[in-house]
Design goal:
The chain is of the alpha/beta class. Helices cover 39% and strands 20% of the residues. Strand 6 and strand 7 form a beta hairpin. Helix 1 (2-16) packs across helix 2 (18-25).
Length: 225
């Protein structure tokens, strides 16, 4: 946090001039413009800590999914211990979900990243190394039906299509980065298949711009939508 304070003071100085910056920062020992480093939305969500550590963590340093904060709050209230999750693309989200649900299957196509996650994985997390597109999309694992599927890796269009076959009757699918045109264009396809959708657009760990994820669901889903 000290580093962030120093950087922020420097940026203020070069942006508005040293005299103006000192006037702004002189109102108290830390300066009103620095208060947001110790309180408020970004601080409470752990954004500054994630920026300093360059990893997706909350204020306490616990791993969280690299998703919009508004979506994380939504999921924190609705994920249940009996649920099963499939995710295309392993990472911090693997640990986040494993701490909240019964079982997680994560498909990964990068061997070095797979081995990194494997070293610290919890017991209820199954990692599947799939180094080609067919194996990746197929996502062979110990569970055949899932309540929640996260599409957040390579081959997203194919994974989205295949993932529908893996949904339980109450299952939902989350497509990440739908602020990108190549992924937002997939939303109408899901609508035509009978899915409703809910878009979450907000700050997310590490990055300084808004991130969007879209949740696809049907009536009687596991999240109570």
């Amino acid at each position: 946090m000290k580093l962030l304070r120093s950087i922020f003071r420097f940026l203020i100085g070069i942006t508005v001039g040293r005299k103006t910056a000192m006037y702004w920062l002189a109102s108290n020992s830390e300066g009103k413009l620095l208060n947001f480093l110790d309180a408020g939305y970004l601080y409470e969500n752990g954004w500054f800590r994630s920026l300093e550590e360059n990893r997706s963590v909350n204020l306490r340093g616990e791993a969280i999914a690299w998703l919009p904060y508004s979506l994380l709050r939504f999921l924190n209230d609705r994920l249940q211990p009996h649920l099963t999750i499939l995710e295309y693309g392993a990472g911090a989200s693997s640990f986040y979900f494993a701490a909240r649900v019964k079982a997680v299957v994560s498909v990964e196509n990068n061997r070095s990243w797979y081995e990194h996650i494997l070293m610290n994985k919890p017991q209820n997390l199954t990692l599947v190394l799939a180094e080609n597109e067919d194996a990746y999309v197929q996502a062979d694992g110990p569970v055949s039906k899932f309540d929640f599927i996260l599409v957040d890796g390579d081959f997203r269009e194919a994974c989205l299509r295949k993932g529908i076959n893996y949904l339980s009757d109450a299952g939902v699918i989350l497509l990440d980065d739908t602020n990108a045109p190549e992924f937002s264009s997939l939303i109408p396809n899901m609508t035509r298949l009978g899915f409703k959708h809910l878009r979450f657009n907000d700050f997310a760990p590490i990055i300084s711009y808004n991130k969007e994820s879209t949740l696809f669901y049907r009536d009687g889903n596991c999240l109570g939508l």
